[in-house]
Amino acid sequence: MSIKQSIFLFLLTPFVLLVGITDGQTKVAAKVVELKSEYLKNPVGIDVKRPRLSWQIVSSEHALIQTAYQIKVAKSEAALAGKETPVWDSGKVASSESNQVAYSGPEQRSGDRVFWQVKVWLSNGEVVSSSETSYWEMGLLQTSDWMANWIEPEQSADVSKPSPAPMLRRAFNVRGDVVRARAYVTSRGLYEFQLNGNRVSDHLFTPGWTSYNKRLQYQVYDLTDQLKKGDNAVGITLGDGWYRGIGYNNYRYGDRLALLMQIKITYRDGNEETIVTDKDWRSSTGPILMSKIYDGETYDARLERKGWSEPGFADASWTNVRLAEYPKVDLVASMGNPVRAIQEIKPVKVFKTPAGDTVADMGQNMVGWVKLKVKGPAGTNIDIRHAEVLDKDGNVYLANLRGAKQVVRYTLKGGEAETYEPHFTFQGFRYVAIRGYPGELTVDDLTGVVIHSDMQPTSEFETSNPLINQLQHNIIWGQKGNFLDVPTDCPQRDERMGWTGDAQMFAPTAEFNMDVSAFYTKWLRDMAVDQLESGSIPHVIPDILSRPNRPQAGSAAWADAAVVIPWTMYQSYGDKRILEEQYPSMKKWVEYERNRAGDDYVWDGDQHFGDWLAFATNRSDYPGATTGKDLIATAFFAHSTDLLRRTAQLLGKTEDEKAYGELLEKIKAAFLREYVSGSGRIGENTQTAYTLALQFDLLPENMRESAAERLAKDVRSFKHVTTGFVGTPYICNVLSRYGYWDEAFMLLNNEKYPSWLYPVKNGATTIWERWDGQKPDGSFQDPGMNSFNHYAYGAIGEWMYRNMAGIKIDESAPGYKHILIEPHPGGGFRKVSVSHESVYGKVRSAWEITGNAIELSVEVPVNTTATVRLPKAKLAFVELSGKPLSKQNGILDAKEEGSNSVVRVGSGSYKFSYQMD
Ligand code: BGC
After folding, report:
1. Of all protein residues, whose CA lies closest to atom 5 belonging to ligand 1?
2. What SS3 class is residue 448?
3. 489 CB under 6 A from ligand 1?
4. How far from 894 is each of 8, 704, 844, 852, CA to CA, in Å?
5. Is the pLDDT confidence value at 6 over 60?
6. Residues involved in catalysis
7. Residue 501: CB within 6 Å of ligand 1?
8. Binning pLDDT at 50, 70 and 90, where does residue 234 land?
9. 3-state secondary structure at position 260
10. What spacing in Å lies between the alpha carbon of 488 and ligand 1's midpoint?
11. What is the mean pLDDT of residues 403-429?
12. CA-closest residue to ligand 1 atom 3
């Protein structure tokens, strides 16, 4: 068949004829899986009245779409299966939506658990029901549901000195068969919860970090199987945590720790009983002599109180607790992902440094703590210091921790082998220096426990370049290390705060790598409540930096997180509700920008962080890449206004859409007037200035090509990035968008400072804060600002996934409902294989080239479609699984576009191969 004939055949073959042709595979029925409510699997204790439900459909069939769904919600699993009238039956809804489907039945009350199931109708005629049982359970929705009192142990209110962690206990009797028991718990400070001698859950750092004086989370635990008939006891240890830590940033919401808890028991006979925090609780202190977020923990195992959280423990010598008057109106359910110990790693070696320290190398810069195994005489003191790097002499380097001590001290109780892990602190480290270990320390005595918010990993990434694979590894570890309940800047020095700018820059990369939907939802709520009256957004959320009359807020590119992150969430998860919820905050921020910019729409004169940590040099003919803060501020003012305009349009806020559209035009005109010459030259000749102008479409169409050419020229002359935090996330994107792929790849592949691969070449296992954290001669950058685990520059991840592999979100069908797959071979890569677990299931794009031949594997989840751009492809030469394109399932249509071919596909796996032109 000639080429012409085959194109002709392809175009003429009606799609209907293709449906149903199998590839000789046996047909397996579709499955409905991954049922989630508010992004969580079977959440217990939520306070969203109309939770959004989602599910995935799995099938090997091609081009499968859901044509209708029916959701049933019932009070019990039995009722769901039986004939009883459900609490809510959506009826058969003709819709392809399987994400963000809001429950619309009667509002559930506090503590209600409901079970749900979904049945789907598919385009191939199959009708399938979910087989998993799923549920959600409401928390305590009214303040009056809280019958417990806040209680406080006896404690020092002097937070300038370390103080022991209070332990609180109460024994109680369970007088019959329990059919249901729930504990509702929160604290001022952190808490660790034991029942009858065991920890109740694997959640760590509860109740999490929120803007405590406005929103305090509580947790709900199902104790039905853990209570026993007769005597029981509950024991809670409190830690200072973020609530009353000390340190240069003074995490400080109050001076005293407090606990609020109630256990509601339902007996088989229908009676109910509630055990609450009240004055009958007893308190003491024990082995934790000090535990602070920055400083570490001091633990004397000789002071352990054996059996303290069990019934029958003699607590006569313990003291009474005090009732305390703290509000309960600010209590909210926990909607984020719990923090857990996610993985354990063993040290790669133990060695002696030139300074004489015994040091274990974990082989990975990690966040969490070390689990210690030791046997020795009682009273032996062991000191564990934590460092991210070794200096050029091979000694542990601690100066970059600034005021954070990160020291864990353990005193042995003696006798049998002892195992110890700290409680209310975490460390950022790769190396641990251990003093006082009895006997010889070996790698078997230590385990690194990696701790972070438990987000589902959603990406796979591999290329033919091991350095780039290591870069991706470092990006992932940057995320692991800095997503500990809030998105932090760094996990080691005396900072560890929710810096808005860093979070904004990294959000699209974070979304690709892990399911961050619940994580950011929680954090954005804190952002909204911490927003200042003026509309300004604090530099860090929760805002622990502002002081009365001294707000620390309002930096362009940082505060714009208020608009950018909700928008990113909408793009990633199709989450419109977050836009609705955050809309007032987004609008207030843009109005603040408008106010500060004034009548000329140029936002000048205010304090901003600017293109933080951009390339600097001592060369006298080039002072460094300083991009004016006013230019950056005006560019972000435009960007946020643009996103707000688009949000208004989506939410049907027509007046706002119009108003912000007009505002956007004014800002663009102002930008042009102020910063751009008549010929399109930007006054501030930096990569960041050009990058922002192009990324945010601030230039008129006729100036864009020449501006891009100027940027590319600058990149070619430097041969490296000169950008800081602000320009770095976008520069490769702008270059490739305007066709300068070689320049983009050159930046990515550059192994010399400043570049992403310079740290990789120097053994980095995480992303560094600075391009040259450690210099080629082994010396370090300024210890005042030199973290080796800062995710911001990891924002290059987004470009790699969306451009090299080409997995793109279609803004008009977000949440990967319609996916653009636009791979781009280049940069010397022989192969690139990337996948992302979207809300609908796995999206994959993997290419391999041999000479001119390319093989591209694509996976598209059920209930989505994709438009695949085959680079340099003539349609007639494209084969699908070794056969001419037209004869396969799942292909919706195909056409040539310039030198590429564009194929629209339905769900399924596809292997395209052809010779590139
Ligand atoms: C943080 C940054 C942050 C910055 C503000 C630093 O101390 O570590 O990542 O964005 O302050 O410029």
Report:
1. 609
2. strand
3. yes
4. 11, 31, 19, 22
5. no
6. 495, 769
7. yes
8. very high
9. strand
10. 10
11. 97
12. 499
